[in-house]
């Protein structure tokens, strides 16, 4: 996709140019329906409301799409048993984390039936009776189960065509009764399996960095898991908005399950590259915190989700980061063992809390989130 002149898309879409448009009121009314984008669609809209229009040129006009490139696909089969296969996988992971910040894994040990059921469970939640769904809608940070549309709705320059249910699982999981009945069992099972896989991948990352295999698993700030389960309804005017705006993740690592619809893209060498769905695989990406502590040896890259006429699309992103008071207070900075005279620290020591505060304050605005921490 090549976007043309910037002024075409911008025409009439800048809220500041129209004094009669009350964006805050529009956002508030939408939020108060407690039914998200799915609710809008169910009400029969054929045009997307203006609050979803992406007028920010930086976000829409980054570059071209290149279909010849593809995100590395890494086979984890028998890496626990066969040391030469493990060495091979670690070498592939090292290259993928340095050059792409993204890869897909197969034979990761989680059965395809578990992945499929997780997607079905999340779909059941978003498609259940509106009166039941509504009762989960909240922006209360104290709740461990939250259903909402657009996490930073009130801060972002424009809203995305996406709804989400979030589960804050580790270190302090919700009571099972707090999890919606339509997806309760699978959410619990899936979270456990992803946590175990996360530990395996952190081991492989530690090895790829030349550290002790348990290094990353011993960081309190990385030992946390929250899960965002996204629902991207079909969009009547996909060229005017995004499923998810261009952003990096604030985690150490994210493990993503996507269905077969497609639409996820990563920015690689200034080209948007599709992350093609591979049934049974999981997508792994590096977050800002791992880029920071590896002193840029591993990179956290921009990614986005396009909106489509077809849908819904379902995805489940599991973020590894401990935002409990204990995890958030931990100092994070470039790992000393990785530094040398030739490779001096390029970030200052900070805390997870500070990194997160900056990330949430800026919202999904498309700006680079590690900038304030660079030396
Ligand atoms: C995210 C994300 C991608 C997707 O939640 O941070 O990038 O495919 N999701 O939904
Ligand atoms: Ni992301």
Automatic annotation (TrEMBL):
GO molecular-function term, one example from the UniProt record: dioxygenase activity
Domain Fe2OG dioxygenase: 223-323
Pfam families: 2OG-FeII_Oxy, DIOX_N
InterPro entries referenced in this protein's UniProt entry, alphabetically: DIOX_N, IPNS-like_FE2OG_OXY, IPNS-like_sf, Oxoglu/Fe-dep_dioxygenase_dom
SUPFAM superfamilies the UniProt entry points to: Clavaminate synthase-like
Names of required cofactors: Fe cation
Protein keywords: Iron, Metal-binding, Oxidoreductase
Source taxon at top rank: Eukaryota
Family: Belongs to the iron/ascorbate-dependent oxidoreductase family.
Protein name, entry field: Fe2OG dioxygenase domain-containing protein
